[in-house]
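testing teh design pipeline on a random one, pls ignore if ur not involved
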């Protein structure tokens, strides 16, 4: 259903006018210089690198508490980690039991939130995101590979293999409050990026033996990670497709540092009753014991969560179903937009194009790796899985009349009409036929802006909607277009996006997590949700380098 949130439209329009006025006042005092941007990126990898022996790695501004570093129950603390206790004034503890699959251990079972141990250094996005993230890391890894930082890239993939082995899956990030969800599955693409780079392993017989052993271990653990998406909770009804889902309940703990988000959502829903979708429940700001017991069943547990306690406005609280969708949205990485209803509160009711495209690519990658490992039986299995998913995507997601892949609302048996950049993922994944790719490329104008591709064609004031553009989705689109032979389109978008990064860098010497592709700069004015445009920034750095490679191709 097409949504036009007028309040946010008005705010976004004013913000855009203000940003344009600021640009006009600033003038062109500093000209964009790609060489300066590149120099910054080359040095930023070290600035953004964290490790378990670095005190700065333990800091978590999202949850303001004394730092705790948790090790898996079955892993003894290495000497360098024991030394961290005194050096960084941090508590080192073990998780209470072994974790076999994601969701086995709930964050609320632990006495305090903390960082989850990883054995190798890793690159973080930046700012409040001071840990290794599941999908950010793919774009960081390909950037590291492009910048000849192969050892750091391989170490990050090894960290993900450690996560699967000891924490049950690739996590949203290595903090305890992320133990209940994953993120968009890019693991096999990261494995291939490392394995297929000749510089990852020594060019000797011993190096080749090491590479094959590494690949065999990575393949086995990738199979385990894949199983996350085929568990009943992650299935989109009987469609044969998958959905996003978080095994936790209630509001997410990491929003403790943003006390306005959930109240902002409530106020918007109250002002737009037609878009409520049963996301509101009556509730007091300070409920008594009886009401608190009722809210535990209909909303969230105010006695156990400070975030839940603060999630009140105008006589209302958010429904339990909203929180299920809110958590699923965060697993999607697109937090938030209006793609799946107001604030994407209905994410769990959809089979998303992005997730199923990624899983198709995952299945094809596992087929390829099985062939490399001389395992034709496994290869045939993954070929079958990929064909089944492809058939389901063609059946439920392809809108032939519109020439687009669309998210499928499996609760109402209908495709979404909300134009979103994730509709381009099937080109990158290899799902789209040549004819479908041609039709999809013809729809680029829905998202193309002077500074790159916007997330959607609906301005809601949220960061994952128009006019904001992000490095990962711009890269998926450019890589997909290039793979399908639309190289001029790919180069045009790559040039525009990198130019936007250059403009932002020329203004203040930083690279940001997101950009205003409508105005072609880093002037972002978000109305609700994450309102800060974080400096860093891991995936923007990586994608900038990959876009340059596209532009250098003959």
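output:
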């Amino acid at each position: 259903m097409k949504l036009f949130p007028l309040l946010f439209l008005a705010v976004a329009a004013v913000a855009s006018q203000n940003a344009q006025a600021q640009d006009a006042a600033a003038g062109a005092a500093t000209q964009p210089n790609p060489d300066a941007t590149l120099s910054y990126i080359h040095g930023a990898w070290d600035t953004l690198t964290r490790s378990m022996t670095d005190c700065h790695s333990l800091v978590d501004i999202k949850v303001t508490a004394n730092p705790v570093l948790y090790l898996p129950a079955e892993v003894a603390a290495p000497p360098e980690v024991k030394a961290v206790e005194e050096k960084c004034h941090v508590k080192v503890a073990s998780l209470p039991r072994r974790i076999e699959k994601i969701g086995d251990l709930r964050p609320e079972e632990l006495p305090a939130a903390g960082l989850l141990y990883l054995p190798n250094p890793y690159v973080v996005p930046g700012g409040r995101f001071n840990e290794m993230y599941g999908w950010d890391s793919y774009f960081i890894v390909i950037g590291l590979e492009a910048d000849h930082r192969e050892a750091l890239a391989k170490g990050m993939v090894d960290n993900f293999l450690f996560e699967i082995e000891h924490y049950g899956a690739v996590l949203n990030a290595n903090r305890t409050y992320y133990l209940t969800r994953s993120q968009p599955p890019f693991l096999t693409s990261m494995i291939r990026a490392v394995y297929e780079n000749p510089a990852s392993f020594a060019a000797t017989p011993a190096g080749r033996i090491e590479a094959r052993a590494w690949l065999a271990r990575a393949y086995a653990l990738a199979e385990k990670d894949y199983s996350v998406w085929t568990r009943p909770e992650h299935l989109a009804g009987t469609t044969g497709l998958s959905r996003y889902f978080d095994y936790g309940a209630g509001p997410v703990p990491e929003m403790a540092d943003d006390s306005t988000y959930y109240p902002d959502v409530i106020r918007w829903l109250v002002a737009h009753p037609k878009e409520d979708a049963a996301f509101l429940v009556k509730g007091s700001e300070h409920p008594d014991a009886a009401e608190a017991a009722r809210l535990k069943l209909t909303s969230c547990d105010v006695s156990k969560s400070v975030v839940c306690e603060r999630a009140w406005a105008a006589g209302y609280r958010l429904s339990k179903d909203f929180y299920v969708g809110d958590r699923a949205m965060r697993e999607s990485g697109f937090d938030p937009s209006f793609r799946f209803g107001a604030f994407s509160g209905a994410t769990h009711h959809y089979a998303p194009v992005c997730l199923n495209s990624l899983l198709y690519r995952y299945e094809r990658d596992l087929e390829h790796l099985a062939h490399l490992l001389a395992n034709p039986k496994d290869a045939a299995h993954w070929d079958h899985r990929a064909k089944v998913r492809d058939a389901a995507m063609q059946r439920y997601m392809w809108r032939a009349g519109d020439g687009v892949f669309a998210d499928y609302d499996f609760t109402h048996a209908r495709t979404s009409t909300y134009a979103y950049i994730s509709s381009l993922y099937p080109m990158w994944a290899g799902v789209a036929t040549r004819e479908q790719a041609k039709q999809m490329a013809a729809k680029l104008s829905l998202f193309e802006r002077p500074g790159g591709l916007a997330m959607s064609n609906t301005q809601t004031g949220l960061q994952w909607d128009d006019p904001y553009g992000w490095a990962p989705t711009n890269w998926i689109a450019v890589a997909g277009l290039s793979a399908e032979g639309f190289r001029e389109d790919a180069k045009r978008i790559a040039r525009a996006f990198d130019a936007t990064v250059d403009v932002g860098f020329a203004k203040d010497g930083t690279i940001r997590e997101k950009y205003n592709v409508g105005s072609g700069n880093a002037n972002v004015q978000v109305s609700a949700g994450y309102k800060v445009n974080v400096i860093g920034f891991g995936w923007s750095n990586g994608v900038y380098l990959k876009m340059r490679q596209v532009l250098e191709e003959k």
